[in-house]
Amino acid sequence: MITFSREITLSDDTKIYAEIFEKNHPSWLIITHDFGEHCGRYNNLAKVLNENFNVLTYDLRDHGKSKIKNTPLLNFCQYICDLEEILIFLRDEYRMNQFILLGHSIGALITLGYVQQKQFDTNALYPQKIFVSAPPVSTKLPFAINLFSITPLTNSIFLGPKKRLRSIASKVINLSFSLPMQISLPVAIERIINPNKLTHDTLTSEALIADTLSKKSIDLRLLISMVDYSSRVFSRPINPHVPLAVTFGSKDDFVKIKAIRHYFAAIEKEAHLKAIDGAYHDLHNEISRFKMEYQSYLLNFLKS
User: Fold this and answer.
1) Rounded-to-integer distance, Cα 34 and Cα 282, Å
2) pTM (2 decimals)?
3) Confidence band (pLDDT; 50, 70, 90) for 88?
4) Parallel, antiparallel, or unpaired: how do β-strands 148-149 and 188-191 relate?
5) What is the mean pLDDT of residues 197-220?
6) 241-251 pLDDT, tens per residue?
7) Beta strand pairing status for 28-32 and 54-58?
8) What is the CATH number of domain 2-141+228-303?
């Protein structure tokens, strides 16, 4: 196995940090992480998948080791454009012609958004299969309130009572939704995620708290764009025309389980849907019994 890092320069000169796990396999697997994470949190999963695929993981712009210009990212759609440029990079630099897309949570939104956008583009790079976990299926604001709240006097992960902060956040963000994007205030929205609800693995939770590469906040304008993009993607079918598998933890507090079940039962009916009973949000970093069930489902789907 050859593992190394690359810096991918995008068309706007943004530098995207990527890690490549290569074994001369015919197919590639591209992993897009959740908001606030970085690709290093997927190294163990990448090593497992590298037994059958070449794997590329990358840091979203303004995440981890990916560099960004001084101007803040305000349009969530930019992440879809970035994914496309990364695929073009693999095609041009590594002669990639077969690939699978994998995305987790907000990474799942990026992945599904790309597939939905490119479904009728005959010139686009299109995957053989798609696998996503914990997709943020919701056409309303509350899914974002589960992840963020306003804590303007701190830059750290907030672990205290959330009810009042969520109420304030909901009012401020709903007000901002009524304003044109260009006059919305650049309010910092701080993460209030309790790491102990991401995974049952306490060592992983503790590592996340100490992780200096984790992103601690989001610009309100980007959050608005994210919620709007999610509502548009999940208001209609993905129509991937290739196999799509979806999984989530049944005890995940960060996505709306009912919304996921409804969407993939009533709208995108062709997807394979599996709940990991008892698991939390980060299935790839869960304790052994949940992680093994997740990996088994993933590998069986990829090899089928």
Assistant:
1) 9
2) 0.87
3) very high
4) antiparallel
5) 88
6) 999 999 999 99
7) parallel
8) 3.40.50.1820
